[in-house]
Amino acid sequence: MDFTENFKQALMSLTTNKLRSFLTMMGIVMGVFSLVAIMAISNAAKSFMTAEFNKMGANTIILQYRTNDLDERDLLTMADMDNITRGMEEVENIASAKVFLSEVRLEDGNRDAQIIGATSQYPSFQTMDFVVGRFLTASDVEGQRQVVIVTDTYARRYFGTTGILGEEVRIVNHNGGIMKMKVIGVRSTEGDLFASMLEGIDLPVELIVPFTTSQSFFGDGSVDQIQIAVKAGVDLKSAGEKLVRLLSFVHRNEDKYLATSVADIQQAVGNVLGVISMVLLVIAVITLIVGGIGIINILLVSVTERIREIGIRKAIGARKKDIVLQFLTESIMMTGLSGLIGIGLGLVTGAVISSVIKIPPVVDYKIVLLAFFGSVLLGIIFGVYPAKKAADLDPIESLRYE
Amino acid sequence: MLQIENIGKIYGSGSTAVKALEDVTVRIGNGEFVAVMGPSGSGKSTLMNIIGCLDRATSGTYILDEVDVKELSDDQLAAIRNKKIGFVFQSFNLLPRISALKNVELPMVYAGIGHKERRERAMEALSRVGLSDRMDHNPSELSGGQKQKVAIARALVNRPAIILADEPTGNLDSLSSEEIMVQFQSLNKEGVTVLIVTHEPEIAGHTKRIVTFSDGHLVRDHVVDNPLSAEEILEGKVQALNQSLEGGMQDEWT
Q1: B58 touches chain A (CB under 8 A)
Q2: pLDDT for position A277
Q3: Cβ–Cβ pairs < 8 A, chains A and B
Q4: Which residues, if any, are the signal sequence (chain A) (predicted)?
Q5: Looking at domain B2-248, which of 3.40.50.1100, 3.40.50.300, 1.10.20.140, 3.90.180.10 is its CATH number?
Q6: CB contact under 8 A, A319 and B107
Q7: A109 and A20 in one domain?
Q8: How far is the CA of A92 from the CAs of A89, A124, A231, in angstroms?
């Protein structure tokens, strides 16, 4: 019994019951589909995250408060930045920021605003592209200049264009005081995952001003966090510990600060993503098994329907392995084809979802090959029992079967 | 050469055991034409299944061309069924969804013969039984006689030494039966051993030897003195048919 003959026979048998074959295949299609789609999306998410973290720099340490239980003296200030640069030669670059939740005055009322007081080194840690203009300079910060950087969405919404350098933005503080700020830069939010996902939702507008300006306007000189880039080759963990020791010494307190490296965060987020994809994969595998049971079931029905045919084949000289091969071929054809369809659907869905959430799709050909050969393997596993059952039929009984 | 020595066959076991054959000894030489007769349940089909290597005897020995069948594996038996033996059944047993040609090709598929040769030999076998113009028809589009001819073509296509036919004319009218017997007689003339199970004495009369079974025992084994010639009978029947048709037509004309 040669391969082509086997193939033709299996194809004929499957096309005889088109609807049945189709429905049986759906289980495997769904399983492979979810498997491929999940892998595509989780790979895309992983590579996106890696790229984002790399932009921030892998040698970055973020210094934050460990608790909310803070006294006045525990608060970090601009002075601490100087302390750190003076006290640690490992530091290459340092920046800090403080976010004030406030409002911005518009012609027809106020709108919530997140006013970020930043230092000039801020963009080294936070990637930022400009449509027009520039970021804050050291002299903007030192001179407490009344300048502001807005987002392109803000500019388009309230000015109708992004070319608004020199225009005026009025920010409001808790006492109702108003400060007029001159626009010196419009930054792009394109390619920003969260901005594009949340487009159309009225979030507080994000305005960046010199740290010193916001400090005096809001009357608060503390910072939320300090970002420190260490020199190449410096151990992040020991540098982080040293930072915490230094600040605890300066502020004469204990356990108030926490140093996290970007690598730590990346790993933590990666772990969470890994767990999520594992759970989804388990579900996909369960789907595959259920689909496989469907295939066993329908093959058993098929064997019963064709007992007489099997008897005839045996009478004219089919060996056991010929019969086994005949049913295995049908099974493999079903799962293999299901695998191909599932892979196709999975890749398309992965691409669609990627484009919706604006992550570039990542096709892992290893996964695609694995999914295909996995389906073929499933065909063998699920086909063996029915095929064996068919091959073991007694030829005389089968020939008499009505 | 078929040597059946003291063959017995018991179905089931214990109190439900049924003796289908008991102590049967018979020898059938190459080129013989034998009818196996007997009432239903007499064991004749069981014997055919054993001779055809579809079933194994419970006791005794069956030697087929100097080989003791007991010693053969299932796959070896399958190979014998494929190459040495051709089966013809009462209910034709063609695969319903494939053409007559594909049905005839099937034994050669299992014999591992290549596509082109298969096709040529199947066409040859079908034209031998007079069905060259029906090759692409599925069994459902053929009459009973035509189906049985396809089955005969399938049985002879691997050039077997033995053809086993179990009630081959049981589902056919007398004209078709005669046509089938023409095929068997012509095959036998070429040296093929033919065994036919039948309960119709007229069919048995076409053979050269009749063995009769009753209750699992071989009770009679005799030579047919003047075997009927299927060709002559068929000619006579066709003539009679034509005459009656003409007569009927004349009746209508006058």
Answers
A1: no
A2: 86
A3: 62
A4: none
A5: 3.40.50.300
A6: no
A7: no
A8: 8, 11, 5
